[in-house]
Amino acid sequence: MTDWTEKYRPSTLSAVRGNDKARDALAEWAKTWDDHCEAVVVYGSPGVGKTSAAHALAADMGWETVELNASDQRTADVIERFAGRAAQNATLVGSVGGDDGGRQLVILDEADNIHGNYDRGGASAVTRVVKDADQPIVLIANDYYDMSRGLRNACRDIEFRDVSARSIVPVLRDICRREDVEFEADALDRIAEIDDGDLRSAVNDLQAAAEGDRRLTVDDVVTGDRDRSLGVFPFLDAVLKEETPEAAIGSAYRVDETPDDLTKWVAENVTKVYDGAELARAYDHLANADRWLGRVRASQEYGYWRYATDALAGGVAASRDGSKGGWTRFSRPQFWPSSDSTADEVVRKVAENGGFSMATARREVLPFLAAMTHHCKPRELTVSMAAYYDLDEAAVSFVTGSGETTNKVESIVADARELRESAMEEHSGAFGGERATVDEAAAPDDEASDGDAHGANAAETETGAGDAGREADADADADADADADDGQSGLSDFM
Asked: Structural domain boundaries of the chain?
């Protein structure tokens, strides 16, 4: 069944309901863009029509759209590669109508969820793109003041307010008539009241209540009233333990998360409940969900979200052999974008010790560390990891998924500190006499290469500046000393 929120998404700006003033301001911004060349922030509560308005505006203006949303990596590199390129260049195929000579509308969704740590410069990158853009940009945000001050100051702002029940009811009535659904007027009023300004949720609730006999009564609305307080953890209980596939899909639509995010939550926690054949079947459905999400990212066709939701919720629930009881400690997906200082610190330490980027540390290294030390097993390897990266209790808990205050984590951190101190004593030559001995051996090469005085070369190597000597020495000994200790500690030194 087609998702009604997608089927009846407004195709023109005049069809956007409930925010006439904001709609007109957005249209005026677009028509006068050549005069001011400013980006605009469209902000307001979820479900009030912000993204729909942006796409409808593009259709009215004959502009093509380029969208970067919350499902994408929003590092500075990605933002400048995609949004920046789009904002600088005219479209390759020309505009779909109008006379703007190939204008593009760049849409950056969830602009208030870009942070400086996990998105690694994403906020500053957006600010640069906004200031240098040669194409119109619309930033979509739920909370205007969660955006950086610099970004806010670089843009105009237009607020979309919650849609009144009086504006929601005509939309619901129109959909009922198009879908040939008989309805009681009080039922539509009830849906509008329940959803309290969220037009998207009202349409979803209408579809859920009308599904089946194509007749909508007040009783249908009351019994089908969604639990607006359903969070991610109750959703995980519903999908992984309790509900039928059909009910699990319904629960997925009651959670204020994208299918992309829900897939990450389920994938992170499914192993805590399923095993064996159940787990294998669940992973097949999660892989299918990921394929549909890939098609969304490639085509910007958000109607595919429906199929991803069916797979991640209904498919995973169908993988169960029966209901499951008991309490499970569900955890947030690893490397979840957030301002969590512990997570940021772990990523930083792994990147610094490994000599690679924060993005590589987060996406490629940490998953291996987490898998190898899950729940602090094996203990020896967990101690070695904590020693190598100098992790405290909170950091060990984050990587391993164990409780921060448990005796197990505390003892691992204590052993790691002892191991680190022992390793530092053993390798103290890397900072003292042994390093001097190594550098002295390179001094003659330095003298021969540049003719400087011995004293000057000695000083140069002592401070680490004798690049030529070291390169020559390394070339000469590359084969013979491939396994030689360079005076630096690695993870193996702690094992």
From this structure: 4-159, 165-223, 232-318, 341-426, 429-494
